[in-house]
Amino acid sequence: MTLNNASLKLILDYEVGGGQSYYERNLRYPVWPNGESGVTIGVGYDLGYNTRASVVMAWDPRIGEEKTDRLIPCIGIKGEAAHALLPSVRDVEIPWSAALSVFLDTDVPTEWRSACRTYPGIETLHPNAQGAILSLGFNRGWSLNGPRRTEMKEIKALVAAQDYAGIADQILAMKRIWIGTSIEGGMYARRNAEAALVESVI
Question: Is 50 helix (H, G, I), strand (E, B) or coil?
Answer without folding.
Answer: coil
